[in-house]
Design goal:
The chain is mainly alpha-helical. The longest helix has about 35 residues. The model has no long low-confidence stretch (mean pLDDT about 90).
């Protein structure tokens, strides 16, 4: 394990503990929703089976690779990156339930931190996890209660909307101020980075409206489209291990 990662953990222990508390809370939300949906349709399968655990490991590894392969977008400052790690996470959540989706999302972040560390004092990592979960949980919980093509479409649309709205608000209220404190920066400096790529960005509100919102909308739309195109063909293989 990278020593710099351990150093960053020790230096930001309170923030890491908050991170872990959020992970636990979201997992409990997913677990309860999944239990209710299974009871409603008479499904007695365990939420975490041996096969599911194996699939979680596989999808987490794929998601971590995609997460590392992030890239900047022309309409946002460089600390905002686009990646498609939610694609395997959403497919896994559709196949095995919301609790699986949260676990994949968390393990993805953990693998990324172990092998690459953090360049944002864990702020970007928390953002990716929580905002990603707002998308994955919304989409997969809806699909868990309505396992039809229509349910998948509604889930993806609602998930994209939730990620766009929540991600925008979460950045403005919590993540950007926290990032500024941890890095010893003032908000004017952060806003100036946004103004450099988009003159319409003049304050926190315009920063999240013109950078964060379109980024999450683009990501959610593309991930949803690909998932809807491939999930039906992948589902029997994932669940039964055969074509």
């Amino acid at each position: 394990m990278d020593n710099s990662f351990l150093t960053q953990v020790s230096q930001n222990v309170t923030y890491v503990l908050e991170f872990l508390a959020i992970v636990l809370m979201l997992f409990l939300v997913a677990y309860v929703a999944e239990k209710v949906a299974k009871k409603k349709r008479g499904d007695k399968q365990r939420i975490l089976s041996t096969r599911k655990m194996a699939m979680i490991g596989m999808f987490s590894a794929i998601a971590a690779i995609l997460h590392v392969m992030d890239f900047a977008v022309p309409f946002a400052p460089p600390f905002y990156k686009l990646d498609f790690s939610e694609l395997p996470t959403l497919i896994g959540a559709f196949a095995f339930g919301p609790a699986t989706g949260v676990m994949i999302e968390f393990l993805k972040i953990l693998l990324k931190l172990v092998f690459k560390g953090t360049s944002t004092a864990f702020v970007g990592d928390l953002a990716n996890f929580v905002v990603g979960c707002s998308f994955i949980l919304t989409a997969s919980i809806i699909y868990e209660f309505k396992k039809t093509k229509k349910g998948a479409v509604i889930g993806c649309v609602a998930g994209t909307a939730a990620m766009t709205i929540f991600g925008t608000a979460f950045n403005a209220v919590y993540l950007l101020p926290t990032f500024a404190v941890l890095y010893g920066m003032d908000m004017e400096t952060i806003i100036a980075m946004g103004t450099k790529v988009n003159a319409a960005i003049t304050d926190v509100t315009t920063l999240v409206m013109f950078a964060v919102a379109p980024l999450n909308l683009l990501k959610g739309s593309l991930v949803s489209l690909v998932t809807l195109l491939v999930y039906k063909k992948l589902s029997p293989i994932l669940k039964n291990g055969r074509k």
